[in-house]
Specification:
The chain has 305 residues and is α/β, with parallel strands linked by helices. The chain has a domain at 16-171 and 201-225 and 274-288: Rossmann fold, CATH 3.40.50. It contains 12 helices and 13 strands. The protein has helices at 24-35, 47-55, 72-76, 94-104, 140-159, 178-183, 202-214, 232-242, 253-256, 262-268, 277-281, 292-303; strands at 16-20, 39-44, 59-62, 81-84, 111-117, 128-129, 163-168, 170-172, 189-191, 199-201, 220-224, 250-252, 273-274. A 7-stranded parallel sheet has the order 3-2-1-4-5-7-11, sandwiched between helices. Helix 1 (24-35) links the parallel strand 1 and strand 2. The protein is globular. It starts with 15 loop residues before the first strand and ends with a helix.
């Protein structure tokens, strides 16, 4: 089996990482740190998940909008690094709303990160965006993200939290990829001329965050995307070829949209290409999977017995 390129190394002295929302991307980041001797505390809403992760070595806490940390100061005590991947809801950012003062009261935090989305740029008609592009969110979901970013910036500005914001493109990786979509038998090869999406492998999200640990730049935004925005139909066709299958027939967007959910429609309503030079130039990060092709080829290996 082929080996993936090695991840960047974290700071030599392990710290204590507190993660609000140990989801797909956050766990890809936290798990190698746990193996390197870091103490990792995290929140979840799921009791079964909390049990499994506790057995794996995580210090788990329950948290959501309706269930704030009961003793936040004790839970956060000793944290040297903070990460939030909790998405905002209709009321705002639950972490900020419940625990901004607790986070601001911490001493000894050398790095903090907030996982946002490139959706805050809105529709750009296929033009390129970078970190200097002003947010112009169009969907309600992205407007909430932009508001959450501002709330975290306020915590940096007022409380001095050494915050970096990471705007993630469309995420794929193990258990979430075009290969499994094709094998499910439910894949639709939707064609909308000129429509491109930027994407990023979850291992590269973890890699960028790890690189940032070694080179913290408070008050900095990083786009986390690969080198090649591509049409979804192109990605699905490539995945089909890797599997030795014919790609699904092309389906015009105007026909497909009739059966799309509001969330799916909001994704297809935005068209932009995301530049990623800053993660390379400032963090010295080299993408493990520069395009979807390398990413899917590596994921194919994980499907083989």
């Amino acid at each position: 089996m082929s080996q993936a390129p090695s991840q960047p190394t974290s700071p030599a002295v392990p710290g204590r990482l507190f993660v609000f929302g140990l989801g797909y991307s956050a766990r890809a980041f936290a798990e190698p740190l746990l193996r390197q001797g870091w103490r990792v505390a995290a929140t979840t809403r799921d009791e079964d998940k909390a049990y499994r992760l506790s057995v794996a070595g995580y210090e788990m806490h329950f948290f959501d909008r309706g269930r704030p940390l009961p003793d936040a100061r004790a839970a956060l005590a000793g944290a040297t690094h903070i990460l939030s991947s909790v998405p905002p809801d209709e009321y705002g950012d639950a972490v900020i709303d419940h625990h901004a003062e607790d986070i601001a009261a911490l001493s000894g935090v050398s790095w903090a990160g907030y996982l946002s989305t490139t959706g805050v740029y809105g529709d750009r008609g296929g033009d390129w965006v970078d970190e200097e592009t002003l947010p112009r969110p169009s969907s309600q979901r992205s407007q909430r993200r932009a508001a959450a970013e501002r709330a975290w910036w306020d915590l940096h500005r007022v409380g001095g939290l050494p915050l970096q914001i990471f705007r993630l493109a469309g995420i794929y990786g193990p258990r979430r990829n075009a290969l499994l979509e094709r094998l499910s038998g439910k894949a639709r090869r939707i064609v909308k001329p000129g429509q491109l999406f930027s994407r990023i492998h979850v291992d590269d999200i973890a890699g960028v965050l790890t690189a940032s640990l070694a080179r913290p730049r408070p008050w900095r935004i990083y786009n986390v995307a690969d080198d090649e925005p591509a049409a979804p139909a192109e990605v699905l066709a490539y995945a089909s070829r890797l599997l030795g299958l014919d790609p699904p027939p092309e389906l015009p967007f105007e026909e497909a949209r009739l059966t799309m959910s509001p969330m799916q429609l909001s994704f297809w309503a935005e068209n932009r290409r995301v530049r990623n030079q800053r993660i390379k130039e400032e963090l010295g990060y080299r993408l493990l999977y520069p395009t979807y092709r390398e990413g899917l080829q590596a994921l194919l290996e994980t499907l083989r017995p």
